Amino acid sequence: MNPPLGLLPPRDNRVYKLNKSIYSLKQAFRNWFDTLDSALKKRGFSQSKADNTLFTLHKSVHSLIVLAYVDDLVLVGDDLNDIESLKKYLGNCFPIKDLGALHYFLGVEVIRTLEFIFLNQRKYLKGILEDTNMMDCRLSSFPMEQHHHLQPNTSPPIKDPTQYQRLVGRLLYLTITKPEISYSVNTLSQFMSDPRQAHLDAGMHILRYLRSSLDHGILLSSYSDFTIIAYCDSDWA
User: Fold this and answer.
1) 6 to each of 2, 22, 56, 64, how far by Cα in Å?
2) pTM summary value
């Protein structure tokens, strides 16, 4: 920050002290989030213990959910009047801009109809494929060989380990809407400290599969009972 015009710079080693945080300071996000947290809790919201950027409000019949990413908020609820009331409340607390129905958030595209909500990361994935020159690659119908033999130190090291590390990190984020690659990506994440050529080749194989399923995603149907079924190994039973 530069001092206002007409204000002479301080002499010696003294500095100016700000009365409040401004954008881009390291304290700014914390100060903003504390302010948002206070406003939502005054409204009756509870902060999730699993994700402190998620706030929920459950009434006798209806529910409201607020997801915060810095100063971008997603409002979800099963009653439009409650949502409009919350938007009005937030507008009284802060200057806000209502962007309407959710279409894109943090790399996730949202397509909504009366019958379903479809989530995918087509734009995000396309960026990965373009960055790795894999848009015109040979396609694959599966993300990883069934009987792979990926081990540490069994192939030559790669010149730039950060290339592999960045790829695996981006693939991990893709598992939000591509859960079928979770096992493959988790396998590759075991070799982040010392990636070898075989590991990078396996990562490229995942991209070949993803190129063949570019438009795939998660479909949330309004006709399903939305029952979550989980499986675990008997060792964890």
Assistant:
1) 11, 20, 48, 49
2) 0.79
